[in-house]
């Protein structure tokens, strides 16, 4: 079996979080979705478990960070083109997300960032390794 990653994120309003990510074009694994959690499928072997805050607390004794004041992590998604970067981030902003910084364009690398409805930070990036290596000489 290939290694899988399941990122667990606390959310204040599970139906709103599900709607937000559905508007970005993502689907949910029904078998692992209920009133406490939703299994967001990013791609084969990459999942984000959106957990109600109460359910999230059942997995950790640590406080849930206040994402309005602190950054817990930046979730970076690598995609295949600048157009896909723009498409995903534009959809996130239209669905109620917030831009977190100016786009980064290094020629070989292009990235844009947003925060979701719960303040989790996301970066969408495309990288042309051949162009990067050519630039590095």
Bin the helical content. 25-40%
What does the radius of gyration come to?
16 Å
Shape: globular
Report the sheet with the most strands, covering strand number, pairing sense and barrel closure. Answer: 5 strands, mixed
Write down the overall mean pLDDT: 95
| Tally of contiguous helical segments | 4
Strand content: 25-35%
- Catalogue the unreliable spans: none
Which structural category fits the helices and strands? alpha+beta
Give the distance, in angstroms, between the N- and C-terminal Cα atoms: 38 Å
How do the helices and strands follow one another from N- to C-terminus? EHEEEHEHEEEEH
Strand tally: 9
What does this 3D model show about the protein?
This protein is of the alpha+beta class. 26% of the residues lie in helices and 34% in strands. Strands 5, 6, 7, 8 and 9 form a 5-stranded mixed beta sheet that branches. The longest helix has 13 residues. The mean pLDDT is 95.
Q: What keywords describe this structure?
A:
137 residues, alpha+beta, 4 helices, five-stranded mixed β-sheet, four-stranded mixed β-sheet
In short:
By secondary structure, the chain is of the alpha+beta class.
Secondary-structure map with pairings?
Layout: E1 5-11, H1 14-23, E2 27-29, E3 37-43, E4 46-52, H2 53-57, E5 74-78, H3 82-94, E6 98-99, E7 104-105, E8 109-115, E9 121-127, H4 129-136
Parallel strand pairs: 1-4, 5-9
Antiparallel strand pairs: 2-3, 3-4, 6-8, 7-8, 8-9
């Amino acid at each position: 079996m290939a290694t899988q990653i399941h990122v667990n994120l606390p959310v204040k309003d599970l139906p709103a979080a599900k709607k937000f990510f559905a508007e970005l074009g993502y689907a949910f694994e029904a078998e692992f979705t209920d009133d406490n959690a939703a299994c967001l499928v990013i791609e084969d072997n990459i999942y984000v478990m959106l957990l109600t805050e109460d359910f999230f607390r059942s997995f950790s004794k640590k406080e849930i960070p206040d994402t309005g004041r602190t950054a817990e992590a930046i979730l970076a998604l690598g995609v295949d083109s600048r157009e896909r970067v723009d498409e995903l981030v534009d959809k996130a902003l239209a669905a109620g997300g917030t831009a977190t910084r100016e786009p980064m364009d290094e020629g070989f690398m292009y990235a844009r960032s947003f925060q979701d409805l719960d303040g989790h930070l996301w970066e969408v990036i495309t990288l042309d390794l051949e162009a990067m290596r050519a630039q590095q000489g």
